[in-house]
Automatic annotation (TrEMBL), chain A:
Keywords: Cell membrane, Membrane, Transmembrane, Transmembrane helix, Transport. GO terms for biological process: transmembrane transport. NCBIfam families: Opp4B (NF045472). It is found in: Cell membrane. The gene is gsiC_1. It comes from the Bacteria. The chain crosses the membrane at residues 101-125, 137-164, 189-208, 244-269, 289-315. It is a multi-pass membrane protein. Residues 97-308 form the ABC transmembrane type-1 domain. This is Glutathione transport system permease protein GsiC. Belongs to the binding-protein-dependent transport system permease family. Pfam families: BPD_transp_1, BPD_transp_1_N. GO terms for cellular component: plasma membrane.
UniProtKB/TrEMBL annotation, chain B:
Keywords: ATP-binding, Cell membrane, Membrane, Nucleotide-binding, Transport. It is found in: Cell membrane. The gene is oppD_1. One of its GO terms (molecular function) is ATP hydrolysis activity. GO terms for biological process: peptide transport. Residues 6-256 form the ABC transporter domain. Pfam families: ABC_tran, oligo_HPY. This is Oligopeptide transport ATP-binding protein OppD. Belongs to the ABC transporter superfamily. It is a peripheral membrane protein. GO terms for cellular component: plasma membrane.
Length: 322, 341
């Protein structure tokens, strides 16, 4: 088992190298560069001056020289300076990474808390009214665009009802570490998390429901019943364990979805996270920040896939490699 | 005769197909005694598996209607609640499934899967359960039982898995075993091994066995009595020797006549004309086998065929057996009477 985990982690190294290469080349291929972005609204900058700045930043070097330079620093945790914010990217990301990780982690947990029981109910009691309600909800969740739904939540619960704050991650006047701080943080998280989670459930519900419907007709379930196993235990011990496999396999994909979703969510709820910064940085061609952000989210996906592989290998003896 | 363990009376199992119920098992009555092997033979779709699943209560009750009685230990299994039925299934009733490749949970160890019925039916410590499981594994002919105990189904061959399936069925010393085509999914050499094992176990455990199969060789080897099913009905039932020596129903005779033999010099294999009717299109009045023996004049069949006792313990449905002969057969031709051996 340990051997498998170590091997699986080693595979991440080439994956990450490839990822960084692709990101760097793609970012370079974006029209314009940091200098264009910084001076786009400044009519006093002459092309000669801009060219001089480019030269001094090393932006005229061949891409592989720039890549080597960048990756060398990046592995030491230094993603360079933000051209727009005039401070180290690492410093810029620090507080936001924690916010986004918190948002993503809570959203994911809430998504599973909602979707796994619903998926089980819909799969076990197929074609009952409960199943029909869940499936209907699921189609709504699938069809509703995240940004429309998030705006609606914001409008309803913050603007009209005034139950939750409309933006930010915590009230600035509250002292860090106190109970009030925690409560306020939770209050700020509620709307962004629910907006993301209520829609993100569709994949898990649909997969779980379909897999349970499929699994409950399998022969080994008949075997379990013929042993005199009570119906409830037939589900928990035999059907669910098998049906949760695809859910574990989709963990990596779920993380990707969360990262994509966080861009909308954070912009709409003006939540100070990476997503918001991402949109800003693309607008201002803040090249160093964009590459760092894409690298971070890409790494999150690679790590998520690894996690689902490891979880799968723990649950499913067939894919264990010893 | 020994005591009956299972008495099936007028069992009718109907499936809901687009709003209508169609009987796949139609008015079947059958008794299994202690230490008796009753074979049920017939083509695919004749209702043998549906019968087995009805006894075990494994049909989906939302789409299946069960009528009649399945009396076991002075209780009608069909009228028991799920929790009461669960006290009998796995304990007094053991089931051996057809396909060992799919009958085991891929995520649980062999040991766990054999111990599972003991969890519900026996009060044993986990050490005692393990001891019993290892013993069972040895009894079904697995030699390295310690290793197999902690292995997973995918690590075992088909024959080994079927031995495990048998061990599961035997876990709590059942009074009645239902084996639903236990060798169909295995290749021929493994089939022979599994049949030998079944015979050996039958001698040891003395339980009743319902053996569902379409392999007449298996029947001849193992069964005490044979029920031949066609289109949901029992068409002939007799002691195994009697059935092979003196088959009467046209269907039984056709089946026996279809066995390839290296003893006789037949030019072509006998083929039963036509196909088994689907349960939706089946004509439920008159002799159900009539369309497949079209040369038999209509007046030879009974209007509503019943089982007739022609010899003690030998029942045949319909009257068409009386003057039945194959079209290519001359009346009185000895070689066609049966596969006398």
């Amino acid at each position: 088992m340990l051997k498998f985990i170590i091997r699986r982690m080693l595979i991440m190294i080439p994956q990450l190298i490839l990822l960084s290469l692709i990101i760097f080349v793609l970012a370079k291929a974006m029209p314009g560069d940091a200098v264009t972005g910084a001076f786009v609204s400044n009519p006093n900058a002459t092309p000669e001056q801009m060219e001089k700045i480019r030269e001094s930043f090393g932006l005229n070097d061949p891409w592989y020289v720039q890549y080597g330079h960048w990756i060398g620093k990046a592995v030491q945790g230094d993603f360079g300076m933000s051209f727009v914010h005039k401070q180290p990217v690492t410093h810029l990301l620090e507080s936001r990474v924690a916010n986004t990780l918190l948002l993503a982690a809570v959203t994911m947990i809430v998504t599973y808390i909602i979707s796994i029981p619903l998926g089980i109910i819909a799969g076990r009691w197929t074609d009952t009214w409960a199943d029909k309600i869940i499936v209907t909800y699921n189609y709504f969740a699938f069809a509703t665009p995240l940004f429309v739904f998030a705006l609606l939540m914001l409008f309803l619960f913050s603007f009209i009802l005034g139950w939750f704050p409309s933006g930010g991650s915590v009230d600035i006047r509250i002292e860090t570490g106190t109970w009030e701080y925690f409560v306020d943080k939770a209050k700020h998280l509620f709307l962004p998390v629910m907006s993301g989670a209520l829609l993100a459930t569709f994949g898990t519900i649909q997969y779980l429901r379909n897999d349970i419907i499929d699994t409950k007709l399998k022969d080994f379930v008949k075997t379990a019943r013929s042993k005199g196993v009570p119906e409830g235990k037939v589900y928990t011990r035999h059907i669910l364990r098998n049906s949760l496999l695809p859910i574990a396999a989709f963990l990596g994909l779920e993380i990707t979805g969360l990262i994509g979703g966080s861009i909308f969510i954070e912009s709409i709820f003006s939540y100070p996270g990476l997503g918001q910064l991402f949109i800003q940085s693309i607008g201002t061609r803040d090249f160093t920040v964009v590459t760092a952000l894409v690298m971070i989210s890409g790494t999150a996906v690679v790590v998520g896939t690894m996690l689902s592989d490891i979880i799968l290998s723990i649950v499913d003896p067939r894919i264990r490699i010893d | 005769m020994a005591n009956p363990v299972l008495e099936i009376k007028n069992l009718r199992t109907s499936f809901n197909i687009k709003g209508n119920y169609y009987a796949a098992v139609d008015d079947v009555s059958l008794t299994v005694h202690e230490n008796e092997v009753v074979a049920i033979v017939g083509e695919s779709g004749c209702g043998k598996s549906a019968l087995a699943l009805s006894i075990m209560g494994l049909h989906n009750l939302k789409t299946t209607k069960l009528e009649g009685q399945v009396n076991f230990k002075s209780q009608n299994l069909l009228s028991l609640s799920a929790s009461k039925l669960n006290k009998i299934r796995g304990k007094d009733l053991g089931m051996i499934f057809q396909d060992p490749m799919t009958a085991l949970n891929p995520l649980a160890t062999i040991g766990r899967q054999i111990e599972e019925p003991m969890d519900y039916h026996m009060k044993l410590s986990s050490a005692a359960k393990k001891k019993r499981t290892l013993e069972l594994l040895r009894r079904v002919g697995i030699k390295n039982e310690q290793r197999i105990y902690s292995q997973y189904p995918h690590e075992l061959s088909g024959g080994m898995r079927q031995r495990v399936v048998i061990a599961i069925a035997l876990a709590c010393d059942p009074v009645l075993l239902i084996a639903d085509e236990p060798t169909t999914a295995l290749d021929v050499t493994i089939q022979a091994q599994i049949m030998d094992l079944m015979k050996e176990l039958q001698n040891q455990i003395k339980s009743g066995i319902i053996l569902i199969t379409h392999d007449l060789g298996v029947v001849a080897e193992m069964a005490d009595r044979v029920a031949v099913m066609y289109a949901g009905e029992v068409v002939e039932i007799a002691e195994v020797r009697e059935l092979f020596m003196n088959p009467l129903h046209p269907y039984t005779r056709s089946l026996l006549n279809s066995i390839p033999s290296n003893m006789e010099d037949k030019k072509a294999l006998h083929v039963i004309e036509g196909i088994v009717p689907s349960i939706q299109k089946l004509d439920r009045t008159g002799c159900r086998f009539a369309p497949r023996v079209a040369w038999v004049p209509e007046h030879e069949h009974e209007e509503s065929p019943t089982l007739h006792e022609v010899e003690p313990g030998h029942f045949v449905r319909c009257t068409c057996y009386k003057n039945f002969h194959f079209p290519e057969e001359k009346v009185g031709d000895e070689s066609y009477v049966t596969t006398k051996s």
